[in-house]
Amino acid sequence: MEVKQSGQIFLVYIQKDEPVMETLTSICKNNEINNGQISGIGAVKEIEIGAYDLDSKTYLRKQYTKNHELISFQGNITLKDGTPFIHAHITIGNHDLRTRGGHLFEMKVGVVGEFIIRKIDSNAHRELDDNIGLAVWCLENQ
Amino acid sequence: MEVKQSGQIFLVYIQKDEPVMETLTSICKNNEINNGQISGIGAVKEIEIGAYDLDSKTYLRKQYTKNHELISFQGNITLKDGTPFIHAHITIGNHDLRTRGGHLFEMKVGVVGEFIIRKIDSNAHRELDDNIGLAVWCLENQ
Amino acid sequence: MEVKQSGQIFLVYIQKDEPVMETLTSICKNNEINNGQISGIGAVKEIEIGAYDLDSKTYLRKQYTKNHELISFQGNITLKDGTPFIHAHITIGNHDLRTRGGHLFEMKVGVVGEFIIRKIDSNAHRELDDNIGLAVWCLENQ
């Protein structure tokens, strides 16, 4: 993993076989990126994504082991239990260029991973919403 | 709906059952965000999206009533008839993680809606292009 | 093609029949945008996209001639052989709102092309990685 900082912006190159969410989260923690925005492209593998089922309050999950293009990565960073937490959704494409997508749990870089983190100067955090079953954004000042 | 501002950036949490385009547009109007950029993720329902048919100069439209993951939201803000106007395209995913996407008309939040608006200090506007049948970007100074 | 600059941000309107990658690359070169980020939406045609096959170290390529919605465009700009180079992945949607996506080689605007370039003040570059067969991000200072 390599990082290059320019003001509020961090270019992040995640290398083959490195875990994406774990790596990005550690960069946020090490650089005190409490709020922010992440985008990225590349090619990934051993992907676990899901869709939230509100009735059962659980994620339906699927795994994709082979290399897929990482077509879109939209993530945000907020504080959860006092530390930076990344929520990200991705679109992936197979070698027929067909797409799948959803909530990202984890994936590894399959070829290259090119990410851009933009730090935001605020301290929005998450708190559990019992009706939804998830920790949701709380934007009021604490 | 909750909003937290940090300089040019607005974190926006749109809650279950609230309309996304209507809510984001009202935030732009209230904060004089004449130009800008919007991204977002979450889970949405009662989605109407479409694709533009240049021959008939109309949008082909489809509705998706059930909850879908909001995998990607790319939107821009320009002035149309003197007020902020949002143009957005989205990718959604169903519970099999299959994706659909296109031009967004409107949708409601199904579980959570996490959006980030970045204000841009300019006044680009739209004007009708008769050949295309749409109000298109005009970037020259007025 | 029209461009409006606001500080580090460039709004770019690419018109019908103009090539997207060629146009964006020339804007980066003319404005010394060595590093940056690009997003965009619109409707495009004569699209060539692909997926990288690590075994053969070649891209599998497909063409889509008809108009498609440009649903997502995530691109980054780094230096390659001393000049700005754009790496972009896209999601496109047909008139049934079905999606395809992958690594973008080139496409033309079919209806409108609305892009936002954000310049980043750094000089990250690419160098060939023989194990991967691609020029990859190098983020250490030169």
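Chain B has a mean pLDDT of 97.
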